[in-house]
Amino acid sequence: MAKPSASGSMGPMNNAASGNQSTEKAGSTRKWLVVLDDTEECAKAVTFAAYRARRTGDTIALLVVIEPGQFQHWIGVEDIMRAEAMEAADKLFERYEALTSDCGKIPVVRVVREGKQADQIEALIAEDSEIVILVLAAGTSSEGPGPLVTSIAERGADAFPIPVVIVPGKLSNEQIEALS
């Protein structure tokens, strides 16, 4: 199991192309970054990014951030918990890569990082100049747009050197395809 580097990346898993997607097109270096989680709205962000990437010939970077604090136990327990977190990340990748496949042949890159989610998103964008757009989706509950959108918005308009797209969580896949 790869240990995270100082930047929070997880070694070999970071930027490894997925096996069931086509490889990047020659000259195509633009990536649409989508942060994966178990929320319903995450599928909306992936769908929007997939349709846009298909239209523009770009790549999708799927990011899973393993939050700190999950591994604050004895070494043996820490290793087991990290392995379980990586297994959960693999399941997220598989689910959302299948969703991108439904939209067409779109190159996908997997990225796993360890740390605070908003910090890791910001660091990845700073490290990878090929990432040109961050795609998020707003939650549909009356409690607000969701913790990720809220934490990104709290950083202010100048927090990221790239555009941040927030897809309304109530859009249908047909509406998302039409917009993209």
Looking at the overall shape, the CATH architecture is: 3-Layer(aba) Sandwich
Structural class determined from secondary elements: alpha/beta
Q: Percent of residues in helical segments?
A: 40-55%
Radius of gyration: 16 Å
- What is the residue-averaged pLDDT? 83
Q: What does the overall shape look like?
A: globular
CATH fold field value = Rossmann fold
- Helix count? 5
| Order of SSEs | EEHEHEHEHEH
Low-confidence stretches: 1-26
Number of domains: 1
Spatial ordering of strands, largest sheet = 1-4-3-2-5-6
Mind telling me the CATH class?
Alpha Beta
Share of residues in strands? 15-25%
C-alpha termini separation: 38 Å
Quaternary structure type: single chain
Under CATH, the homologous superfamily reads HUPs
Q: What is the tally of beta strands?
A: 6
Verbal overview:
The chain has 180 residues and is an alpha/beta fold. It has a single domain, classed as Rossmann fold, CATH 3.40.50.620. The chain is 40% helix and 18% strand. It contains five helices and six strands. Helix 4 (147-154) links the parallel strand 5 (131-137) and strand 6 (164-167). Helix 1 packs across helix 2 and helix 1 (40-56) runs parallel beside helix 5. The protein is globular.
Keywords, please?
5 helices; 180 residues; Rossmann fold; globular; single chain
Summarize the structure.
By secondary structure, the chain is of the alpha/beta class.
